[in-house]
Amino acid sequence: MESFLKDLRYAARTLAANPGFAIVAIITLALGIGANTAIFSVVNAALLQPLPWPESDRLVRVYETNLARGWDTFSTSGPNFLDWRRQTHLFDKLAAWRSQSYTLVSAGDAERLDGGAATADLLPMLGVEPALGRNFLPEEDRPGGEGHVVIVSHRLWQETLGSDPAILGRALSLNGTPYTVVGVLPAGFQWVAGADIIVPLEPILDDRRGNHVLSVFGHLAKGATLEQARAEMETISHGLTQQYPDVLREWGVRLVSFYDWILNPDFRRSLLMLAAAVGLVLLIACANVANLLLARAAGRQREFAVRAALGAGRWRLARQLITECLLLSTLGGTLGLLAALWGVDLLRGLSPGNLPRLDEARVDLWVLAFTMGLTMVTGALFGLAPTLQAWKLNFNEALKEGGRAGAGGARQKLKGTLVVAELALALTLLVGAGLLMRSFWRLSQVDPGFDPKNLITMQISLADPKYSTPSKSADLVSRLLERVNALPGVEKAAAGSIVPFGGGNTAIEVFLEGAEAGAADATGSSANWRMVSPDYFRAVGVPLIAGRVFDTTDVEGAPPTLVVSQAMARQLWPGRDPVGRRLRTTPKSGWMTVVGVVGDVRNTGLAQDARATMYLPAYQNNWTPMTLVVRGAVDPTTLVASIRSEVKTLDANMPVSNVRRMEEMIEGSMAQTRFSMSLLVVFAGVALVLSTVGVYGVMAFAVSQRTHEIGVRVALGAARSDVLRLILSHAVRLAGAGIALGLVASLLFSRLLSTLLFGVAATDPATFAAVALLLACVCVAAGWIPARRATKVDPIAALRCE
Q1: Which of 489, 631, 773, 800 is spaced 20 to 30 A from 666 at the CA atom?
Q2: Where are the domains positioned within the chain?
Q3: What is the model's pLDDT at position 1?
């Protein structure tokens, strides 16, 4: 121990004697270790820590699928859920949830709240016990049961209900209907972001088997496996398809573990890609510090030789070097840990908000252990090369005046090898960043199918019983739109049940008129549906392709009509004119006539193909949620206050909420892609800078080692251009070797990115060529300054020095 302390004190003195070297090495290591620690804190929180529910390994998300329509994860209909729950034996609980909004009227003020309806066993299945009160009783969650009870969030209880200790039993007016509070959720409950209201599901369960609106979750029975449950549910689904062929043709079932549901494969790939990228940055940092140590060791050969002559063995010298490296890595790791504390906060701040569990990332004991281990490994990595060089040193030659040149040749080769590795790793990161940048640009250029410029949306609820009929809700909407359209600065205002990029899709079965479609086509197909006001298409900017859009004649009592998208027209009436065709949403419901065809809209994301969509006239149908869309002749955010005033004038209990610009909604849909791309670009930029410094260091060291040779060449008549070409050729050889090796590594790394790319191949030749050219230019530029210095060598001074 005493010997180690002596080595440690000596290492500290040597670093203090060379503050420039020490600062550069420590900062380089801190960058690599800090970035790795910050990313690992996210990996640890997201992928390594258990999910925050008891027995989460037995929790399952159950989807319906329709692979013929390209839907591998879709919502479930109420009757299908009830049949699943009745027939399964491998789930001890099968629960369901339906998202919906509510209007709470309290103390004369109206507030729109997000929430939903849940079966009575959902919260107990998740291990949730209310902080106050109780969960739903079985008799409260059944058709015709006592369902007018509600569980409220802890936030709502504190902020809106004043933390009333007597809240249990209190009546709340939700959508104009009184509900009795029976429970308050615990603080921090995050089942559904922003869910403030939960009511029993089955009293309001839709009995249409083709209306897919439920999210279903299951808890495996003890001893049951996910594979067994999959087999059982597929059997049940097949039986239901045979029982209801008209509705369930092409529909299946899919089971996904909660881990795969929360942490979807694309997110895991992005996280692992970032972890791999930041690991490459650390390797480059290690190579850079190793090169610094090799250059520093060139001036310490005589020191090592003298110490050996005084009795120090090779092991003793190697131990001293290892101690110095560990001290460097410890200082770098400590500074890196401090940087990681800031980096984790920065990552959370840059997060688009939809990255699962990122808010749980923090520097905990596991992260500290990772940083300590990484620090030790880093010290070993960058200390290996100089230690081996010192071990091979010929002490007798080192004591001679000319011994330095022979050792410098071997050292120069090792430094060159490290720089080649740096360049290869940097090229790999640059190619990955280039592919993601091109992918993001391609995604941003996709036409969403409408004009988002100067378009703003806001949600309004018509859930009050006084708007329970289509004529009453139509009267209110038409009066509201008339008032908003009259506001200065408003170009066009309309309303829709769900707007593009507004979250959610609602699919329903459709049945074509058999006399026209033929027996083979008369069975059910699926389409998304939306209710819209007559001016919706003009306001949003969706082009009319054929026929007409809705007008004021499409009201309650008039013949039912609909407008279909081009994708729906191609799907249901390929090669035929859909205008005038008829369909219905259940085998027994009334027929609706297609009056128009509009352009396709990418409703859920720019990377998602437009799906078959049908639009229903709002004035013929009853609706509770409504999204007002306003196109402004000016910045539409300046119109919000006036619009709120008009809404309040019509109905003071009808709140306006979730005001958003359409352009921001589209940007938000690309936020996760932008987040991954931005981090990889930063890592690639750091790698490029470190590699440039590495090339410069090697070239500067080469010039210093070859000063005598250059002096001889100049004395023998070599021109300055010859010297410049001699040095730059070395830089070009390093760049060529690094680029060749990096291109091979990039082909492997790009495979990790393939599922994250849009419109760009993982082997895109333009990206590979551009990055290789960039790196080659940077290498030549980094070698130019040492090469210029070499041309100014005075041969007389160089020869006299030698």
Answers
A1: 489
A2: 465-652
A3: 62
